[in-house]
Structure formats: C-alpha cells, structure tokens
Amino acid sequence: MQDLINNLPKLAKDKHKENKTFFTKLKKKPPKQLDYIMQDLHEEEFKRTDCLTCANCCKTTGPLFTDKDVDRIAKHFRLKPSQFIEQYLRVDEENDYVLQSVPCTFLGADNYCSIYDVRPKACREFPHTDRKKFQQISYLTLKNVAICPAAFNIVEDMKRRIKL
Ligand code: SF4
Ligand code: SF4
User: What is the pLDDT of residues 125-136, one digit of tens each?
Assistant: First the structure.
C-alpha cells in the first residue's frame, strides 16, 4: 500500500488531463443512474481497500470542522467549544476551522482514529465518492485522486464504466 501511496501524486498527475476532460463531460451530461453507479463503485472499491492500511487522508490533509463538529468533539473531551478550538484548530484562508497541524492529532500510530465515533463529518464522508450528484464535486475529486488510492481507483473504474 505504501508504494502505491508514494506513487499516487505522479499517477494522478499523469491522469490529470484525462480526468479533467472526463469530469467536464460528466458535468455537462451526467448519466441518469449516476448516483447508483457511484454507490456501486464506491462499495466495490472499499471492499478491496482497507483504510487502516492507508490513513493517507488523515496524514496529509485535515478535515474542515463545522460548528456542529466542534460542539460534538468538544463535548467528547469535556471541553468548552472555545477551549477545543484554541487547543486544536485554526482558521484557514477560506475562514474555515481546520487542524493546526497534520498528520491529524487524533490519528494513532496504528492508523486508528481516537475520536472515530465523533469524528468530523468531512472525515466520515471522505473521499465523497458515494455522494449524490457526484458530478458537482469533480474539482475536489481531481485533487483527491492524488491523496486517496481508493478515489484514484474509483475514478479509473468510472472511466471504464461510463462512456460519455
Ligand atoms: S479514505 Fe482514501 S486516503 Fe483515506 S484512508 Fe481510506 S483509502 Fe486512504
Ligand atoms: S479526526 Fe480521525 S478520521 Fe479525521 S483526520 Fe483525524 S484521525 Fe482521520
């Protein structure tokens, strides 16, 4: 897995133009059953890929924390939201709360998330490949294929399965 993760930025770069063309066409004319196809591809990929052998998203990018995430996680630590923010978060260029540093503070050496049950919504949903109206997040996916081996494989499968 680590070899694939190390190679992923290059693989993604090599596929960038092809992926961009594909996503542009997908956005213009998404197949009627796209939500169903994405669900299927996502489930198949995550039967093969075990996130516990990877954790590259937790190691290299942090999630956004919504106000609800902050309240829930602060409560978990018995902190006030303001204390949690001060200890762990910062405001980024887009005015969102993000982690002060990566790898994520809550990631263990065994790749387990120590706040798994209360983790941010963005972590629960990453890499967003089973999202409804997937064609609307193609810009995000173009970036995610360089981070997430599962997203990379799903996009490759999409190009094989969806003829545009
Ligand atoms: S979501 Fe993707 S990047 Fe994150 S751990 Fe799973 S396979 Fe790795
Ligand atoms: S909160 Fe948990 S799932 Fe989210 S980035 Fe940190 S370790 Fe990963």
Answer: 999 999 999 999
